[in-house]
Design brief:
A two-stranded parallel sheet has the order 1-2. The protein is mainly alpha-helical and 397 residues long. The protein folds into four domains: 116 residues, no CATH class; 95 residues, no CATH class; 78 residues; 80 residues. The protein is 66% helix and 1% strand. α3 crosses α5. The radius of gyration is 29 Å and the shape is elongated.
Length: 397
C-alpha cells in the first residue's frame, strides 16, 4: 500500500520553513535544537530507505512503483535544491547553521542517491535538473576530477586518452551553463567518474590503459575523439605485422575482443551521435574487407601474360591519414617554406608516387593536389591532433 500522506512532510517543513532565512528567524535556534533536527533528519533518511525497500517487494504494479519513485525523486531534488539555496543565503559567520544544513543536505543526498541507484529503471531521465542542485553536482564532479588527475591519470602513459576524458568532463562542468542539462546526462557523468575512481585502485600499472578502454566501451563513450584514438591505436598495432595474413589474423582477433567487451544497455555519451559499437563495428568491417582484397591481389598470379622485365614498383610510405589530411599537411609544408620546391604542384607531384594510405594504395597527383585546397573542418582537427601528439613526443624524448 502506498502511504496516503506526504511522506517527506517533516523534511519539507525543516528545509522550506525552519531553516529558510526568508521564513524563520533562524538565529533564534539553539545548538541543542539544531542537533535534534540533524539527528531527526538522519532517522528520517533511514525510515524512507526502509519504506522504499519494502515497496520494491510489495508493489505488484510497475506503474505504481514508477509513480512512487518519481514522486520521491522529484520531491528530494526540490528539497535538496532548496537546501543549497538556504545555505547560500546564510552568512559564513553562522557556522553552526551552515554545519546543520550541510548535515541535512548530506542526508537528502544519500537518500536521493539510494533512489537513483536502486530504482533508476523507474525514473524519467529527460527532465531538466534544477539549477542549485546542478551547481552542487558540478562542484562535486570538479573536485573528484581533480582527484582523478592526481591518482589515476598521471599513471597512464598516454595523455591522448586521458585528455579525451578530461575534455568531456570539463565541458560538462564548466561549459554547459547556456543549455538545459537532463538527469540522464548527470547520471552518465556521475557513473563515468565513479567507474574511473574504481579503476584508480588498480595496482597493476599495465592494466590501467586497457581497463579505461573497456569502461569507455561499456558506457558507450561515443565521442569522435575516443573513436579516432581507439582505431588509431589498433591500426598501429596491426600494421606492425608484416605479411597481410598476419595483419588479418590480428585484426580479426581485435574484432573478437571488441565484440566480447561488455556494454551497458541504454546509455550513451552523446545521444545525437551514433553508438560506439555501430561506428567501430563498421570500421572493423571495412578494414577486414580491405585486407581480404589486398591479400587476393598479393597471391593471385596474372593469367595469360608472358614474363617480362618490369620496373620495380617505387617504395611507398604508408601514412595513417586520409588523402585530404595528407594534402593539407603538404600544403602547409609548402606555405611555410619548410620544403624547397618550384611550386606546390611540383612538390605534390614529386612525393605522391611514394605515399599510400590504408584505403588507397595508389594516390594520384591530381587527387592529392585537389584535396590540398578542399578539406573539411574535421580533417583540420585530425591534422592538428596529429601534430600535437608529435610535439608531445618530441618534448618527452
Amino acid at each position: 500500500m502506498l502511504e496516503q500522506n506526504y511522506s517527506l512532510e517533516w523534511l519539507d517543513f525543516i528545509i522550506n520553513v525552519t531553516l529558510n532565512i526568508a521564513k524563520t528567524e533562524i538565529d533564534t535556534l539553539s545548538d541543542k535544537q539544531l542537533q535534534t533536527i540533524v539527528a531527526k533528519a538522519d532517522e528520517e533518511k533511514e525510515r524512507h530507505v526502509k519504506f522504499l525497500k519494502q515497496q520494491g517487494f510489495q508493489l505488484d504494479s510497475r506503474r505504481k512503483m514508477q509513480l512512487l519513485v518519481g514522486q520521491y525523486h522529484a520531491s528530494l531534488v526540490m528539497l535538496l535544491d532548496q537546501a543549497y539555496e538556504n545555505a547560500s543565503r546564510i552568512s559564513p559567520t553562522h557556522q553552526r547553521l551552515q554545519t546543520a544544513l550541510e548535515s541535512i543536505s548530506g542526508c537528502l543526498d544519500e537518500l536521493l542517491g539510494f533512489v537513483e541507484d536502486r530504482f533508476s529503471d523507474f525514473l524519467s531521465l529527460d527532465e531538466r535538473v534544477p539549477a542549485s542542485y546542478l551547481a552542487q553536482i558540478k562542484k562535486e564532479l570538479s573536485d573528484r576530477l581533480e582527484a582523478l588527475r592526481l591518482e589515476l591519470f598521471v599513471r597512464i602513459d598516454n595523455r591522448s586518452l586521458t585528455d579525451i576524458i578530461v575534455q568531456s568532463l570539463h565541458h560538462f562542468i564548466y561549459d554547459s551553463e547556456k543549455r538545459p542539462i537532463s538527469f540522464r546526462e548527470v547520471f552518465y557523468k556521475k557513473e563515468l567518474v565513479s567507474s574511473l575512481e574504481k579503476i584508480s585502485s588498480e595496482t597493476d600499472e599495465t592494466r590501467l590503459h586497457q581497463a579505461i578502454i573497456e569502461q569507455l566501451v561499456y558506457l558507450n563513450f561515443n565521442s569522435r575523439g575516443f573513436m579516432n584514438y581507439f582505431t588509431q591505436k589498433l591500426a598501429q598495432r596491426i600494421n606492425a605485422y608484416g605479411p597481410v595474413h598476419e595483419k588479418m589474423t590480428q585484426l580479426l582477433l581485435s574484432y573478437k575482443e571488441f565484440n566480447q567487451m561488455h556494454r551497458k544497455a541504454g546509455v550513451k555519451l552523446s545521444p545525437q551521435h551514433a553508438d560506439l559499437k555501430k561506428v567501430l563495428g563498421n570500421w572493423f568491417a571495412q578494414e577486414i574487407t580491405y585486407l581480404e582484397k589486398k591479400h587476393q591481389w598479393d597471391v593471385l598470379p596474372l593469367q595469360n601474360q608472358q614474363p617480362s622485365k618490369e620496373k620495380p614498383e617505387p617504395f611507398k610510405v604508408m601514412c595513417f591519414l586520409s588523402v585530404d589530411q595528407l594534402g593539407l599537411i603538404l600544403r602547409a609544408l609548402d606555405a611555410l617554406r619548410i620544403v624547397k620546391s618550384k611550386s606546390l604542384n611540383s612538390f605534390i607531384q614529386s612525393v605522391a608516387p611514394y605515399l599510400s594510405t590504408p584505403r588507397k594504395e595508389e594516390i594520384s597527383y591530381e587527387s592529392l593536389r585537389n584535396k590540398a585546397y578542399t578539406f573539411e573542418a574535421g580533417d583540420k582537427e585530425v591534422v592538428i591532433g596529429t601534430l600535437e601528439r608529435m610535439i608531445t613526443w618530441i618534448r618527452e624524448s
